[in-house]
């Protein structure tokens, strides 16, 4: 006599599916992607207070990427990578020089045009800021796009790569402002 198959418990199947979905979402969020809310105006005009973004935790930061990192105060900051390990950084007459080469920063054009009382970014050299000529190995130099109102590497020093959460370049909320952030 053949054994009859028992009907599957439908509730248990739904619970298993839900547990698997929650576990996968947790793994994705912990290891690969995470949401973040921009808090403050330090990245204006590129990012606004309250913008919601996705942080990509994969890869290594590149120059001009926008990254999220654990700041010394125990908060997460969002800033732009200006200097990579080994780079010499200097600002002179509102122009960024990396390893002696001038770089355009088109994401600052809007603010530079609006400033009437001096440069957007004050002159400095990396040596003035951290007492070294180059960004240390395993660290990056970051700055907010709202240069006059940003607490960044000019105040807190270089950021260890181990403190970087990831790169972010996609604003998904508010929906009317959703866009990919260009360098």
UniProtKB/TrEMBL annotation:
* Gene Ontology MF: a single term: serine-type endopeptidase activity
Q: What does the record give as the reaction this protein catalyses?
A: Cleavage of hydrophobic, N-terminal signal or leader sequences from secreted and periplasmic proteins
EC id:
3.4.21.89
The record's GO CC annotations read:
plasma membrane
A biological process term (GO) from this entry: signal peptide processing
Going by the UniProt record, its keywords in alphabetical order are: Hydrolase, Membrane, Protease, Transmembrane, Transmembrane helix
Give the main EC class.
Answer: hydrolase
TM stretches of this protein: 17-38
The cross-references to InterPro entries, in alphabetical order and at most eight, read: LexA/Signal_pep-like_sf, Pept_S26A_signal_pept_1, Pept_S26A_signal_pept_1_CS, Pept_S26A_signal_pept_1_Lys-AS, Pept_S26A_signal_pept_1_Ser-AS, Peptidase_S26
* Membrane topology, from the record: Single-pass type II membrane protein
Instruction: Kindly identify the residues recorded as the active site.
Output: 42, 79
Determine if Cytoplasm is one of this entry's keywords: no
Ranges for domain Peptidase S26 come to 11-173
The entry's localization annotation reads:
Cell membrane; Membrane
Q: Per the similarity annotation, which family is this?
A: Belongs to the peptidase S26 family.
PANTHER family from the UniProt entry: SIGNAL PEPTIDASE I (PTHR43390)
Q: What is this protein called?
A: Signal peptidase I
Q: According to the entry, what is the taxonomic lineage of the organism?
A: Bacteria, Bacillati, Bacillota, Bacilli, Bacillales
**Name of the gene encoding the protein in the UniProt record:** sipS
């Amino acid at each position: 006599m053949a054994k009859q198959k028992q009907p599957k418990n439908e509730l248990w199947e739904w619970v298993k599916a839900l547990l698997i979905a929650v576990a996968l979402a947790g793994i994705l969020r912990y290891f690969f992607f995470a949401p973040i809310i921009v808090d403050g105006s330090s990245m204006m005009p590129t990012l606004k207070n309250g913008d919601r973004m996705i942080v990509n935790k994969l890869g290594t930061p590149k120059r001009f990427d926008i990254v999220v990192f654990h700041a010394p105060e125990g908060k997460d900051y969002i800033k732009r990578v200006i200097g990579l390990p080994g780079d010499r950084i200097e600002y002179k007459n509102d122009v960024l020089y990396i390893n002696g080469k001038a770089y355009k920063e088109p994401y600052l054009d809007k603010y530079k045009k609006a400033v009437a009382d001096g440069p957007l970014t004050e002159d400095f050299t990396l040596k003035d800021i951290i007492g070294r000529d180059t960004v240390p190995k395993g660290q990056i130099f970051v700055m907010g796009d709202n240069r006059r109102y940003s607490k960044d590497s000019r105040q807190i020093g270089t950021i260890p790569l181990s403190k970087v959460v990831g790169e972010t370049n996609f604003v998904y909320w508010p929906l009317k402002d959703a866009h990919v952030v260009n360098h």
